[in-house]
Design goal:
Shape of chain A: globular
Helix content of chain B: 25-40%
Structural class of chain A: mainly alpha
Number of helices of chain A: 23
Radius of gyration of chain A: 27 Å
Oligomer: heterodimer
Radius of gyration of chain B: 19 Å
Number of strands of chain A: 4
Number of helices of chain B: 10
Number of strands of chain B: 10
Order of helices and strands of chain A: HHEEHHHHHHHHHHHHHEEHHHHHHHH
Shape of chain B: globular
Strand order of the largest sheet of chain B: 6-7-8-3-9-10
Strand order of the largest sheet of chain A: 1-2
Largest sheet of chain A: 2 strands, antiparallel
Structural class of chain B: alpha/beta
Strand content of chain B: 15-25%
Largest interface: A-B, 43 and 54 residues
Helix content of chain A: over 70%
Chain lengths: 564, 258
């Protein structure tokens, strides 16, 4: 590329990141985070966020010149950072002349104090310099060998995470036995400098050990004869199981509640994954089945005025499974012939129909309208009551495990292959003898059952159900989490749900920015890692293969390769 | 014995008559070629036979049973299988999975059996995998079973598509320009392969081709279409010397229409 063109690219990068910095400052995200100390007295959340943006600008600008000389890469990073810094400084300077507050609520004096490190206009040159310096560090990061870089980034990343979640982490360290440790690492509102160093260094160390040893370990495991390897797998599985079972005891009600929600979304995700990921049937009215499961259980078990049979939860959940299955099939019938984009709109309609039906005056006597169904008793099994989140955790865990097992079995069966064939090419699938009506209705029906089970647990978790819990946002959330996790991948559903449901749940105080961060994360995901966090096996294989195959030259000789 | 009969088959798209009053008889175990210039209605005929299109007039009978109004999957289950002019593999599925989908009509296991993994299901799956591997070997794709359809080289994709069609154990195989995009040597190999199919599997093949030269060596019978109408039929030699065919191909009559 011509030199002047590539410098123009760097300038554009700087402008882009500067705009991003100004945007997150003006919407108020930086200021909200500022209330949180990451390292007490050293760095606060808002500054940490700006630091990450500046580092990002440096990394990005240096990456654009991957093939050029070291000096140029560093210069590009510093330039991009300086440009972003100048933009931020200009904003601060302007704020003294213009009253932004009249237009933008987030443009508070505190924000400009944050941006200028509390020094006001006197700091303006420093802002640009600091940004350039940090971006230079980011650019330098790209020069490091991969192992060192990933150790560093994981150390810093975990440090940031622990700092942001320090309240929750401190909650975990309540016990008297670890009080000394807690006081070493945390003050009441952030990490101590020593604690920060410990956290970062320990993480970096562990990460580099892991990186260094993993190939050796996996090679050794692969070299084992089948019997011991099998035994090792069983031991690993049992250890993981034991860990999961004692987890709620350690984590306490707050974390357990978050995990129960993750579990519910995993259940819905597994159902939607079956429809969208396996069968390729886009569905954004999926929350309807969740609602149907919840209302079925609610009405059948409630001890309140709307309760019908006062059944035990276990019986009610069986009935909810059947009801969801039937409603899934009925839902599928009218939309059998609809494909692609149109299907999304049609399903969206169905989700809204169910919500509006529940809200309607017509069904108010049976479903309670906007007052909902109240007093749903907790399930009891052999005298053990699933009373709180720590107990319900096991219920969601068990249900998710069963549902994931069923999904895996179906995926690897004749039906699963038929679904995937339909996803790839509906016409050809039919020409291969696949009855599209049957397999579509099965996908809708079984997907609905998974969500219905989720709804059944949701009903007892909250103890009462209201129509507003079943808005279209839930459907969108579920769709987003299976895409982030990796479409068609079962572990991906759990990973996606941890990221998009669990994490926001822990960061409740920033909840007004939830969808902002959500949107940014989704876009970043689609650009950087479209196959998802934990892609389905076939996709992973494909990416892996293309790397291997190209040197063989098979792709090049495409129109004639079949001579064998 | 005659396996497939079309009688006065007509398919229109708006004002365009894609197939016009087509009478066709295909003998059992024959290789019957349909040739003709672009837009002659060859692929449309396949689409009518496989149930993807509904013909406005006329009938198609397969082994004495009328196919009219049956859905594509029913027709496939009766023993008619096809490939496509522009290869249509399930490109994000492996070669093995592609063939296993082809076997779909012969497998019985349902969703409950699949969840419980009952012995009959396990057994059926094991046999299916075994047969699929044999099929891969038959079409010369041994060891390629784990590759995704889209990652195979072009010629192998063609073979895989044929393997997928064969996996449903068809009585009648419809091949839509199987040599499209191939060089002369590969074309010869494909022709030999098609002859081998008939000999070893005892099936009937209808072959669509664009180039007359290609089909002359292997066809028992050739039908020539032009603008949806049958203009000639007979042995390759008869067709080759038919004045109307030469005219259609050289375009003296059709030139004004292009």
């Amino acid at each position: 590329m011509a030199p002047e063109r590539s410098w123009r690219k760097t300038i554009r990068t700087g402008l882009l990141w500067g705009t991003a910095a100004i945007f997150i400052a003006l919407v108020g995200l930086a200021e909200v985070l500022q209330k949180r100390q990451i390292i007490t007295g050293v760095i606060s959340g808002g500054h940490a966020l700006l630091l990450v943006v500046a580092l990002g600008a440096g990394v990005y600008a240096a990456r654009q010149r991957r093939d050029e000389r070291v000096g140029k890469r560093l210069a590009a990073g510093a330039l991009a950072g300086a440009i972003a810094g100048v933009m931020v400084a200009a904003l601060v300077a302007l704020s003294t002349a213009v009253n932004f507050r009249a237009m933008i609520v987030g443009a508070t004096p505190e924000l400009f104090a944050l941006l200028s490190f509390g020094r006001g206009v006197a700091a303006l040159p420093w802002i640009a310099l600091i940004w350039a310096g940090v971006a230079l560090l980011g650019a330098a990061l790209t020069l490091l060998p991969g192992r060192v870089r990933s150790a560093l980034t994981s150390g810093l990343g975990v440090l940031l995470g622990v700092g942001l979640l320090q309240e929750q982490v401190q909650l975990l360290l309540q016990s008297d036995r670890v009080v000394r440790f807690r006081e070493l690492i945390f003050t009441f509102d952030g990490l101590t400098p020593a604690g920060a160093v410990i956290v970062a260094v320990v993480t970096a160390f562990l990460s580099s050990v892991w990186q260094w040893q993993r190939p050796k370990v996996s090679r050794r495991v692969a070299a084992l004869p089948p019997a011991p390897r099998r035994a090792l797998q069983v031991v690993g599985f049992l250890a993981a199981l034991a860990l999961i079972i004692v987890m709620p005891l350690f984590l306490g009600p707050f974390f357990s509640q978050a995990l129960v929600l993750v579990g519910l979304y995993t259940l819905m995700g597994l159902g939607l994954n079956l429809e969208v990921g396996f069968a390729g049937l886009l569905d954004i009215g999926f929350v309807a089945f969740f609602a149907i499961g919840a209302y079925t259980v609610g009405l059948l078990t409630s001890t309140g005025p709307l309760g019908i049979f006062h059944l035990s939860w276990w019986v009610a959940v069986m009935i909810a499974v059947v009801v969801s299955l039937i409603s899934g099939v009925f839902f599928g019938l009218p939309i059998l012939g609809i494909r692609g984009d149109y299907l999304a709109i049609a399903t969206l309609g169905f989700g809204e129909i169910i919500r509006l039906l529940v809200l309607s005056d017509f069904l108010r006597p049976t479903l309670g309208g906007s007052q909902g169904v109240l007093s749903i008793p907790k399930p009891v099994l052999f005298g053990f009551e699933f009373s709180g989140p720590q107990q319900l955790f096991f219920l969601t865990l068990g249900a998710s495990a069963i549902v994931a097992f069923v999904a895996a079995r179906l995926r690897d069966s004749r039906l699963g292959r038929a679904w995937m064939a339909m996803r790839e090419d509906e016409d050809v699938a039919q020409a291969m003898g696949i009855n599209l009506v049957n397999v579509k209705l099965l996908a809708y029906g079984i997907g609905a059952v998974f969500a219905g089970v989720g709804g059944a647990i949701f009903a007892v978790m909250v103890g009462s159900i209201f129509p507003h819990s079943f808005s279209v946002l839930v459907s969108i959330n579920v769709l987003a989490l299976i895409i982030v996790g990796g479409l068609g991948s079962l572990p991906g559903v759990a990973v996606g749900s941890l990221f998009l449901v669990g994490l926001p749940e822990l960061l409740r105080e920033f909840s007004e920015f939830r969808f902002l961060v959500y949107g940014a994360a989704l876009m970043a995901m689609m650009i950087l890692r479209p196959e998802g966090l934990w892609p389905a096996a076939a996709l992973r294989r494909e990416l892996h293969e293309e790397v291997e195959r190209v040197p063989e030259g098979e792709l090049v000789e495409a129109p004639g390769g079949g001579g064998s | 014995m005659v396996l497939l009969v079309s009688h006065a088959l007509t398919k229109r798209f708006g004002g365009l008559v894609a197939i016009n009053q087509l009478d066709l008889e295909v003998e059992e175990r024959a290789i019957h070629s349909i040739i003709g210039p672009n837009g002659a209605g060859k692929t449309t005929f396949f689409n009518c036979v496989t149930g993807f299109y509904r013909a406005e007039e006329g009938t198609v009978e397969f082994g004495g049973f009328p196919l009219d109004g049956l859905s594509p999957d029913r027709i496939a289950s009766m023993g008619i299988s096809r490939t496509y002019q522009n290869i249509r593999l399930f490109s994000n599925m492996t070669a093995m999975e592609n063939i296993l989908v082809g076997m779909h009509p012969h497998l019985r296991s349902g969703w409950i059996g699949a969840i419980l993994k009952t012995p009959p299901v396990v057994n059926e799956e094991r046999q299916a995998y075994q047969q699929a591997r044999e099929m891969l070997q038959f079409v010369g794709l041994r060891g390629k079973g784990d590759l995704l359809g889209k990652n195979l080289p072009y010629g192998q994709q063609r073979r895989l598509e044929i393997a997928r069609a064969l996996a449903s154990r068809p009585k009648l195989l419809l091949l839509d320009e199987p040599t499209a995009g191939m060089n002369p040597r590969e074309t010869m190999e494909m022709m030999a392969f098609i002859q081998r199919l008939r000999q070893e599997l005892a099936i009937t093949i209808i072959l669509i081709e664009h180039q007359m030269r290609v089909v002359m060596g292997i066809s028992d019978r050739v039908t020539v279409l032009d603008y949806g109408t049958k203009i000639s039929e007979g042995t390759p030699r008869e067709v080759q010397s038919d004045a109307r065919v030469i005219e259609a191909y050289l375009g003296t009559k059709g030139a004004a229409a292009h």
